[in-house]
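SUBJECT: A protein chain and its fold
Encoding: whole-number codes for local backbone shapes
RECORD BEGINS BELOW THIS LINE
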Amino acid sequence: MKWRQLPLGPLQTNAYILHNEQGQCIVFDPGSEGKRLITYLRKHHLHPLAILLTHAHFDHIGAVDEVRNAFSIPVYVHEAEQDWLADATLNGSNYFGQGSITAKAADCIITEESTLKIGDFTFEVLETPGHSPGSVSYYCKEAGVVFSGDVLFQMSVGRTDLRGGSFHELVLSIEEKLFTLPDDTVVMCGHGPETTIGFEKQHNPFLNA
């Protein structure tokens, strides 16, 4: 499997596309610039099967409806944030000068940690709250990657001063969930460059004090 990173929107939120050799793919966090993302998928003959949201902050959901409608695919989100999609106060867009950014209700609600199979793709769904109460990370063992949203960044961690955030919870999520993955697992961060679990164990100043 291969992946592609597309930073989108004013906050350069990373959307990710994980695809197999047949061109089937999963789209993670289509945060903005829906037309650009759709054009990219069609240009590269990629066929989305689903949209997986790591969480429902406005900069991760802005293009959800455009992409969902273009390909008639389901959207997945954790139950703790299912109401955030339609509420600009909950998802934060009202507070950051972005206008009201909303999306229709998700098609599939994640209620617990589980194995999620979509077509030929298999993910371990990890509940990783702290940045937000419904943050989840999707680990694909076959590809050796984890899509962590805004939980863990290269040499940093997600902010915890937004609704439902908790630094204590965030650190526990990283240490008890993400840091149990193999060291060579590539971390697909919600902003900025990719990193690895092993690198962050050794060098992340927020986790190695």
Summary: The two ends are 36 Å apart (CA to CA). The chain has one domain: 2-203.
